[in-house]
TrEMBL record:
Residues binding Zn(2+): 158, 161, 177, 180
UniProt lineage: Archaea, Methanobacteriati, Methanobacteriota, Methanomada group, Methanobacteria
Organism expressing this protein natively: Methanothermobacter marburgensis (strain ATCC BAA-927 / DSM 2133 / JCM 14651 / NBRC 100331 / OCM 82 / Marburg)
PANTHER family: CBS DOMAIN-CONTAINING PROTEIN CBSX2, CHLOROPLASTIC, METHYLATED PROTEIN MJ0556
Domain (CBS) ranges: 13-70, 78-133
Protein name: CBS domain-containing protein
Amino acid sequence: MEMETKVTVHDAMTSNVITADPGISVAEAASIMTEKKVGSIIVKSNSEPEGLITESDIIRKVVSKDLAASKVTIGEVMSRNLISIEPERELSDAARLMAKNSIRRLPVVKDGALVGILTSSDVMMVAPELTEILVENARIEENRALSPENERSVPGVCEVCGNYEEYLEEYDGRYICEECKEDLEGE
C-alpha cells in the first residue's frame, strides 16, 4: 500500500471563498452564511485575510451574550490568529496542522493573498486515508476535553439546529448533532 501520491492543498481546497469586510455587522454576516450555505466567512479588508468568523463564534460571542447582531461588527468577534497554509503544501501537512490546532478550516494563502479555503471535510473527500489523522486527533481531544481548560474538542454547535451538543458528527460536510443527523437520514 506504499504508493506515493502527492496530493496538494490546491487539489482539495475550495477556491471561491466567501469573504467579508471586518466592518460589516454580525447580522449581515449571518445572512450571507445562510444565503451561501456556509458555516464560516473569511474576514479581509484587502487581499490578506485578517480573521475568520464562524457560526459558533456568532453563537458564543453574540447570541449567548444577548448582544444585538446588527450592532456588533464581525471584526469585533472574529478569530484573529489565523493559521493558514500554502496551496502547494501536501494535503497530509494540512491535516496535521488542523489536528494539531483543533481547527476544521484552513485559509489557503499564496504570497499574502487569499486563494482558497480548505476544510476538514475537503480533506476527507479528496484523501479519505487522511481521515485517520483528523479522527485520531478528535480522540485525543475527547480525552483532553475532560480537563476543563480545553474548550476546543468534538463538542460544539450543530450546524443545522444551532444547539450546543457534547458530540457532533460530520454529515454531508457539516458538523451536526445526532438528532439532526437522524432527521436528515430519514428524509
